[in-house]
Design goal:
This protein has 358 residues and is α+β, with helices and mostly antiparallel strands. It contains 9 helices and 12 strands. The structure holds 2-oxoglutaric acid and fe (ii) ion.
Amino acid sequence: MNSFSASFKSNPVDFHKIIPLDFKTANKLPDSHKWTDHPIVNPFTVGTVPIINLSDPNAISLIKHACEKWGVFQITNHGIPLNLLRQVELQTLGLFSLPAHQILSALRSPEGITGYGQPRISFFFPKLMWSEVFSMIGSPIEHATKLWPHQHARQANFCNIMEEYQKEMKKLSEKMFKLMVESLGATLEDVDWLKPTMSCKEPETLFHLNSYPVCPDSDSGCAMGFAPHTDSSLLTVLYQSTTTSGLQIFGDNIGWMPVHPISGALVVNVGDLMHILSNGQFKSTLHRVLVNNTHHRVSAAYFYGPPKDVKISPSINLIDHDHPPLFCPVSWKELLDAKAKHFNKALEVFRNDMVTAK
Ligand SMILES: O=C(O)CCC(=O)C(=O)O
Ligand SMILES: [Fe+2]
């Protein structure tokens, strides 16, 4: 059983919080989806998160600075074929344009990880989000056969593209993780599970296709696409469609600021586990998604984490008498369990310098 199965099994969600609204037939924003405490983007925000060309000889120091200051950056020259990005976007749009009865055949179960539904974090909010998600780990064949029972070519096409993309994302995530570790002055020898003797252990990953349908009325400003959260992963690689903006990050002293899509670029997010590994040096930044009343936005988020049961702790080279470890060792499963209970306060459970209800 992987970390997600184990954690989601012990923290099942309410069935009613799995089925999304039928966005295709909704012609106004229902009360259930109207958010009131919805701080707007700071209109005076200037600048953007860093855009880093991975072929730049200074890439490592640029990555370090971006992880420390922003916790989010965009990368170009990442080696992922543009055509594959386009194919993933087209498949995602095709999937989410299926009629409700058809896409519901792939509904996630209350304890399940994969399939169609509302984002799991819906559980923590009194209002629902204007979004839907399709989750997978590896091949989505089990769901594809239900989605397109009589269209074998379509099943195969969807699965091939999703598998190919995850293969590419795994390589890219490994590369980004190693660059981040090196930028901290650590070697791969400092990270237990990257030592050659441990190399038989595979990282755990999760892949989400996200859809933010057009929000029907002028109240779209009161709708929330994806509520503020941090990712629990080591890092997340996000592809966002270029048709419309929506992703925002929360900067100290800045407030909410947009991460506008750049054609061909990918967004990299520092996750909570990387924040722990860097002993708090890298930020796992709060982010959210807003929707609009003109464009359907889609994104594809690849969450990359450590192998099952591996505990992440602050890297040994960052610890000395003046810099004690801020966190105790924690596995992805333990962090997911804490998130299920404490959501955005989960990291506090593992802090050595805070006394919290465990
Ligand atoms: O759609 C996006 O831009 C962000 C999605 C996200 O934050 C997530 O899936 O964790
Ligand atoms: Fe996220």
